[in-house]
Amino acid sequence: MKAGDELPTLTIPLTRTLIVAGALASRDYQDVHHDAEAARAKGSPEIFMNILTTNGLVGRYITDHFGPRCTLRKVAIRLGAPNYPGDTMVLSGTITEVTDGAAVVRVVGANGIGHHVTGTVTVGLPEGTV
Fold first, then answer.
1. What is the CATH number of the domain that holds 53?
2. Domain count, the chain
3. Residue 130 in domain
4. CA–CA separation, 130 vs 127, rounded Å?
5. pLDDT digits over 49-70, tens only?
6. Which one of 11, 47, 95, 102 is at 20 to 30 Å from 125 when CA atoms are compared?
7. How far apart are CA 35 and CA 22, in angstroms?
8. Are the beta carbons of 116 and 110 closer than 8 angstroms?
9. 24-45 per-position pLDDT tens digit
């Protein structure tokens, strides 16, 4: 593993169920995450994914790649284009730094209208991995 290595992509279908379930699981009861009429009344064409669900999906992407013994030390993300139902988000990552016991990964999640999420994740690696 070295800086510049790319992680395999992860394609996530953005279903209404995923968006609503993610909001409920993270106790985010804002109506724009589950009520299409309320979302439209507030200027959005449809319900959209909350940041906590996105954060969880980014964490899943990293731990799926590095394995169950890794630890997420820092997740720093920024949202961009909303994730609406019926679209697809593709997560990709590039290792930017590898130190003793850790790696930093630049993560991008893109959907049909642009970058939904960008950021970096610092992941602690099990002894002997690096």
1. 3.10.129.10
2. 1
3. no
4. 8
5. 999 999 999 999 999 999 999 9
6. 11
7. 14
8. yes
9. 999 988 898 998 999 999 999 9
